Amino acid sequence: MSATAGDSVGEVVRWATFSCALVPVVLVAYGTPVGGAAAVALGLAAVTAACAALMRRSERAAARPVRTRGRRGAGRRARKTPEG
Prior knowledge:
By secondary structure, this protein is mainly alpha-helical. Helices cover 68% and strands 0% of the residues. The chain is built from 2 helices and no strands. The protein has helices spanning 3-29, 34-63. Helix 1 (3-29) runs antiparallel to helix 2. The mean pLDDT is 80.
């Protein structure tokens, strides 16, 4: 994993957090009730948290070394390759 990959994920999460704060402010400024704007903020925060968790998980998966043989848990659908 490179340092730029981790930095880009952090930057995406920071921008998403910023938008979670900005969107309700804009909604209230345009006349949306405060309760509705708060509900939108909570929804955006939940989506942001889920996306951040998925991005971190995919980062960890990408950083793991790839095993070519002897994968555990491959199951029935694993490809059978002829052994020489």
